[in-house]
UniProtKB/TrEMBL annotation:
Lineage: Bacteria, Pseudomonadati, Pseudomonadota, Gammaproteobacteria, Enterobacterales
Cofactor: heme
Residues the entry annotates as binding heme: 439
Protein name: Cytochrome P450
Entry-linked PANTHER family: THROMBOXANE-A SYNTHASE
Family: Belongs to the cytochrome P450 family.
Signal sequence residues: none
MF term (GO), any: monooxygenase activity
Taxonomic source organism: Dickeya dadantii (strain 3937)
Gene3D superfamilies according to UniProt: Cytochrome P450
Organism domain of life: Bacteria
CDD domains recorded: CYP_unk
Length: 501
């Protein structure tokens, strides 16, 4: 019996020993030449479940990097009775991501977890359903819409600045990531649903509190070899169900509200004010799109729009605390871009190469979405290894960022590398994934990051309250900085004058 090598693995180049049709005869490409995944090196296991314990750790992404240094870019893990392949080779990661969704999909358990919660939107869906969901989400992030989103972004960014000013005045020690989460959830709620929940000024509410409980439980379930929550409800599971019910109620109310607004003002179909109106307009064009589809994707927007951006903003602040000279240069750039102290960035947003360099360097050193869990939809070949349909694949998207061949002194915070031609390429990172399933909201996320970091950097100095070594990376669907507490101090024009002198 032989297996055909999928067309996307056939190339004129060379990818770590893959068989290419241009160099091998059919006889040479027979199954006997393919190696079993069991021939891959494997780190020591722990207990009957093998490496499952490691995948549940908050530093799993760091552990996988350590194993890569010891075992190479391809190695094997044992998950109970199942073998999984870890892929840390940049060329193969790109190849696999380009081959989605036809050749690879997210792990089946991920879609199952989201489906049973009624949340199977564009992030978690696969195959034909993903194409169906994409009809709802693609129109939301067209470049033309970003211009119309800007006034809302500016309004909420002004609130963020005002909140920072209050915190600076009181001298309160705060968790910066929690402050940025208020910012991102406010933006997402307003842009996605036209609802101003305003946690920056009014504090937490039941919706934002419920959202915070979702990611950790979803991450735990997606990584669990046995779905115990389906048979035994712990207190954590009951709290998850209650939070999910509350979020459903809020989102259904948001949908009804925007549908009524469209009924009263049909012009909103052609000039929508928020993403929910865009989805409702698409639903009118395509009767196969249901309210359940809209609800699932509305929830996806809430989840995807909060943690990832807030975490990136916080990591930027954390890293810049250790580089005061670079910080002052970024402050100068921010103030020049907005016309001085207390100004706001104009539209279109200025380039701000220094701020962008800090953002890219933070995405390299502290990527918030470092891992991608996939499986092949049919038997295939990766790097000369026969990989059976359904075999778990762990793609370490962050491994590239620490390659000496791509980034000189890869463990050092060096934003300047992004300012010099040929020193660093953003294409060597995958902060938004890649291929057909690249994050559709990346342009909006970059806008939020620029506006939010400008608000912080141009007006306030961040004073860390602990050594950098006390701040940990915690992986729970995204990588969050834990233990990072700060005091904010308002910058004054005299500070800039002293710096320029």
């Amino acid at each position: 019996m032989s297996f055909a090598i999928p067309s996307f693995f056939i190339s004129s180049g060379s990818l770590n020993g893959c068989f290419f049709a241009g160099h091998l005869s059919p006889e040479q490409g027979r199954i006997s030449r393919m190696r079993s995944i069991n021939r891959l090196p494997m780190p020591p296991t722990r207990g009957l479940l093998g490496h499952v314990h490691y995948l549940k750790r908050h530093d799993v992404h760091l552990q996988l990097l350590q194993w890569k240094e010891r075992y190479g870019p391809f190695y094997r893990l044992r998950l109970g009775l199942t073998s999984a392949m870890v892929i840390a080779d940049s060329e193969w990661i790109r190849t696999i991501m380009k081959a989605r969704p036809d050749e690879f999909r997210r792990r089946s358990i991920i879609e199952s977890v989201f489906q049973e919660a009624g949340l199977n939107g564009v992030f978690s869906s696969e195959g034909a359903r993903w194409g169906h969901q994409r009809k709802l989400t693609e129109p939301m992030f067209q470049p033309a819409h970003l211009k119309y989103f800007y006034p809302s972004l500016r309004t909420i960014t002004a609130r963020l600045s005002a909140r920072f000013a209050r915190l600076a005045e009181t001298g309160e020690v705060v968790s910066l990531v929690e402050e940025f989460k208020r910012y991102t959830v406010d933006i997402t709620s307003l842009l996605a649903f036209g609802e101003d929940i305003n946690t920056l000024e009014q504090g937490e509410n039941p919706l934002s509190q419920s959202l915070r409980r979702m990611f950790p439980v979803i991450n735990e379930r997606c990584g669990s070899p046995i779905p115990l929550w389906r048979y035994i409800k712990r207190a954590r599971d009951k709290q998850f169900d209650a939070s999910l019910s509350l979020i459903d109620d809020h989102l259904n109310a948001f949908i009804d509200h925007q549908r009524e607004r469209i009924r009263q003002n049909p012009q909103l179909l052609d000039a929508p004010e928020n993403m929910l109106q865009i989805m409702l307009a698409e639903q009118q064009k395509d009767g196969t799109l249901t309210d359940a589809d809209i609800l699932a994707n509305a929830f996806t927007l809430l989840l995807a729009g909060e943690d990832t951006t807030a975490n990136t903003l916080t990591w930027m602040s954390f890293l810049l605390c250790s580089a005061p000279s670079m910080e002052e240069n970024v402050v100068d750039e921010c103030r020049q871009a907005s016309g001085g102290e207390g100004g706001f960035l104009p539209w279109p947003l200025p380039r701000m190469p220094l701020l962008t360099a800090v953002m890219y360097e933070s995405m390299r050193l502290k990527p918030v979405a470092p891992l991608l869990y996939l499986e092949p939809v049919k038997d295939t070949v990766i790097a000369d290894f026969l990989i059976r349909k359904g075999t778990p694949l762990l793609l370490t998207l962050h491994a590239n960022g620490f390659e000496e061949t791509l980034f000189h002194h890869p463990h050092d915070f060096m934003p300047d590398r992004w300012l010099e031609r040929g020193q660093a390429s953003f294409s060597d990172l995958q902060p938004f994934g890649g291929g057909p399933r690249m994050c559709p909201g990346r342009s909006l996320a970059l806008m939020e990051i620029k506006l939010g970091f400008h608000a912080l950097c141009s007006g306030f100095r961040v004073e860390a309250q602990q050594p950098a070594s006390d701040v940990m990376e915690s992986f729970a669907f995204t990588v969050t900085p834990t233990g990072f507490y700060v005091r904010l101090h308002k910058r004054h024009q005299s500070d800039i004058a002293r710096h320029e002198a």
